[in-house]
Amino acid sequence: MPALVHRDVVDKHPREEKREKDDYCQKPLADFVFGFCDFVHGGEICRKVMIIRQFGKWKGLGGEGKISRFQFDLCFGLAQWGSIFAVKERTFFPMTTIEDVIRIAVEAHDGMKDMVGNPAVAHVLAVGLMGKNPAEQKAGFLHDVVEDSDITLDDLRAQGVEEDVLAAVDLLTHRPEMSYEDYVKNIVRSRNETAIQVKLNDLHHNLHRAELALMTLDTSTREHQALLDEILSIAAMHDLAERYIQRSIVAGRG
Q: What's the pTM value of the predicted model, to 2 decimals?
């Protein structure tokens, strides 16, 4: 954002001489405007900025002083604009709740079924619930979204998903041009703790689903037997991947 005012101009503008004599101070306004610009550019909450909803004393980035009603309205309007823009557009301050990402996951997997006919969203919900912190939970809920739907990382970013979660989701997305072995190794080599833990949760739940299929799937027909053979083949691959990640974790600690 371009500077709205110049600090020197604000402090020395001749029109403000009379106001200065009347015990008005422009410095708080300049400090607030520059602080607001830093706030927008840096994407961090400017915790020191505080505007009192009352005409009179103002405390903030540049000390304190009296400001005019116009200056107060301008400062307070900027603050309100920043808050509303951040919440509605989520451009400057990306932030999602667990409910937000669950909603995204449910919509992305709407109508999809897994190999045995269960709703695909059940798997991502299970993986998300296995997370031990918000980042793992969010990445867990979203780990198949880019891979299995038309939603892109940029779409998720536009909806306010945090960059650390997006980085994990990117690693967890198995793209066609990469073999499964290279895909798993790429996650491990990234040393992204969120992606590694979510992948372990994903593999653990996939193996659990394979066990359930083994116990419940009717294999009286060739079609069902072929499906079970495919599930067991995938399960064996997942088991190897889980063992590889666990070994890598142990080796890294050593």
A: 0.63
